[in-house]
Specification:
Distance between the termini: 27 Å
Number of domains: 1
Pfam family, one: Glutaredoxin
Strand order of the largest sheet: 2-1-4-5
Protein name: NrdH-redoxin
Helix content: 25-40%
Mean pLDDT: 78
Domain Glutaredoxin: 2-55
Organism: Herbiconiux gentiana
Largest sheet: 4 strands, mixed
Shape: globular
Structural class: alpha+beta
CATH architecture: 3-Layer(aba) Sandwich
Number of strands: 6
InterPro entries: Glutaredoxin, Thioredoxin-like_sf
Strand content: 15-25%
Low-confidence stretches: 77-101
Amino acid sequence: MVTVYGRSGCVQCDATIRTLEIKRVEHRYVEIDEVPAAAGFIRSLGHLQLPVVMAGLMQWSGFRPDLIVEMARRGWCLAGLHPVSYRVCKFSFSRAFEPVYLA
C-alpha cells in the first residue's frame, strides 16, 4: 500500500491524494501534525518537502503525477503486494502548486 505523509493546507499534498484516487491507487494518508513521530521519521529519510510518498521500496517528496500514473499503469502498488483498489473521485486543480517545507 502507498503511504502519503502530508499536512493540511498543503496544495501538493491535496493534489497527490486526488491523483492517487483518480488513478485508483490504494493509499493511506498520515497527517504529520497529528502524528508527532511522523515528521521525525520522514526527516530521518532525508525528505524536507511535503508530501512524502512511500510505495514499497520507492519513496519521493513533492507532487509527482508521473510516478502515480506509472503505478496505475502497472495495475499494482509498487510494493507488488496487492492490486490497487477501485475508487473514483473528481479532481480539479484550483490552486497553484507551491512546495510546503517541513518546519
